Amino acid sequence: MEWETVIGLEVHVQLATTSKIFSGASTAFGAEPNTQACAIDLAMPGTLPVPNEQAFRYAVMFGLAIEADIGKRSVFERKNYFYPDLPKGYQTTQLESPIVGPGHVEIQLADGRTKSIRIHHAHLEEDAGKSLHEDFHGMSGIDLNRAGTPLIEIVSEPDMRSAEEAVAFARKLHSIVTSLGICDGEMSQGSMRFDVNISVRPKGAEEFGTRTETKNLNSFKFMEDCIALEVERQIDLIEDGGRVIQETRLYNGDTKVARSMRSKEEANDYRYFPCPDLLPVDIDDDFIEAVRQQLPELPDARQQRFVEKYKLSDYDAGMLAADAATSHFFETTTQTCGDAKLAANWVMGEVSAHLNAEEKRITSSPVNAEMLGGLIARIKDNTISNKIAKQVFEAMWQGEGDADTIIEAKGLKQMSDTGELEKIVDDVIAANQAMLDDWLASEPDKRKKKMGGFMGPIMKATKGQANPGLVNQILAKKLNSKL
């Protein structure tokens, strides 16, 4: 039987406010455990929450970015459940009246297709604390620094039909919220976490199958692997005569092992009721319009600008425009070197490869945009070749200085002295009589390709520092003179 996968996502986005959603406690990452949880976050008797206006502004920014309806009246409910890192015994969230209503996000797939993924809604809520299981000798520690950090939870419709579509959607959301500046996007720090709802059904069926929810994925790669594993598990289970149980699951990306966590709860299990400590929050048209006027350039518009302004391909422009920090890096590099295509190639090539190898973001690159632009400028003015440029880049990455410093210190300047190069070319031709005879005996249309055989010895003789373009001209002239 042929099966169809159905996927929906719930995405938790930590908002980049300096204080928490209902208190003045700091949201800074990395502080000592339990040093940033105040009495309000812990629901101590006599404390009252005060909504953070910036959290509402950020939520509205997201809603406008996905062309969603904005809820002008936001109501907070208490979602009641017990968990060790939830000190209140409930989570303050939104159920009936979320701040962001239906919207949509456009994704682009590898085969060039585009698809619109519907957003059901996005609501404001507070984050819980964090359970720590290392270094406690069989026990767990509780860090409540994260408790009360403002989140928007983005809930999609079940519109995705493959892991590729789900990952493309997750990446697009990451691109949107980081471009807006409402989230730092640091998934390793929990700034974005994905809950993936997965079911399968016979191809062509209209009714959805029973879904499972895998929680707290913080990597696009983990999401892709998790979906593949769960789809295979569900299909095997059904084809063996079993049935899928609605449940919450966990996936360990390091071990690639998934397991059942608990049976899936329904909304009534949480005993939602309106929060008695918080009045409804009303937002007027003036507030929404003021937020709209402050929206920065969004990824799709940035991609189009890169195509028009820098004459990049749709693919290159899309890759560079997806991340706001990468976009800024690319544009700064281009301004420094004056060549957008070369800048794009280096950012997507050497820079990206080194960042991926060391699991760094571009904001932590040891080679900044101005340094990269300086290196590309030395390629353009023929000071160094592309091959030597990669050596220079490696030295820059290791902290040995800027391009000019390294080129001078290592004596890497490209040889462009015509007289010196002519002598080397003559010597190489004289030392390779068999290669010369083969070239002379070849058909005219094959000589250009065979001329490349002389380049290896020439570059070896010049320690890779000869100007390739100039060498080609000299070599062609010398060989043609022997016809």
How does this model look, in words?
35% of the residues are buried. The chain is an alpha+beta fold. An eight-stranded mixed beta sheet has the order 5-6-9-1-10-11-12-13. Helix content is 41%, strand content 18%. The protein is built from 15 helices and 15 strands. It has three domains: 3-290, no CATH class; 297-410, no CATH class; 418-480, Orthogonal Bundle (Arc Repressor Mutant, subunit A), CATH 1.10.10. The chain has helices spanning 53-65, 163-180, 220-239, 285-293, 299-310, 314-321, 324-337, 340-358, 369-380, 386-397, 403-410, 418-431, 433-441, 444-461, 468-480; strands at 3-14, 73-74, 77-80, 90-93, 103-108, 114-126, 130-132, 141-143, 150-156, 192-202, 212-217, 247-252, 257-263, 273-274, 281-282. The longest helix is centred in the middle third of the chain and has 20 residues, at 220-239.
